[in-house]
Amino acid sequence: MTERPAFAYVTYIESTPEKVWYALTDPDLTAAYWGHSNVSDWRTGSPWEHRRTDGSGLADVVGLVVESAPPRRLVTTWAEPGEEPPGGPSTVTFGIEAYGGIVRLTVTHENLADEAERAAAAGGWAAVLSNLKTLLETGSPLPEEPWHMPSS
Predict the structure, then answer these.
(1) How many angstroms separate the most distant Cα atoms in the chain?
(2) pTM for this entry
(3) What range(s) does the Activator of Hsp90 ATPase homologue 1/2-like C-terminal domain occupy (predicted)?
(4) What is the distance between the alpha carbons of residues 104 and 97, in angstroms, rounded to a whole number?
């Protein structure tokens, strides 16, 4: 069996594990820096949705909560709504580690379909996590949605 692509991103945020956890799981806060609301009760086995904030209520990503250990670790499956992709859904792991007055947030996105999906994940996570970091450290997200910035 061939190993499928994965992507990992690490950022350091002046915050607490509790605030980072809240920022990842609160629908209103995720809407502020992600452009989507992450909606779930965040219990292991529960469904979650990445819902548009345009009022349509549509979810662009859905999955299950695989592991929930607030405020240190959250693991979810990640797939488009509808049929399960060949090879199963991808998995996203958020690792939250405190160190003094900062947090190391490690996001690992595994079981990606191919290199194109890995490249898309790399660009998407860099933009979203930069916006999350800015929001937690300044109280406001970036003035422009970074995922809309043209690549050079």
Answers:
(1) 46
(2) 0.94
(3) 16-137
(4) 5
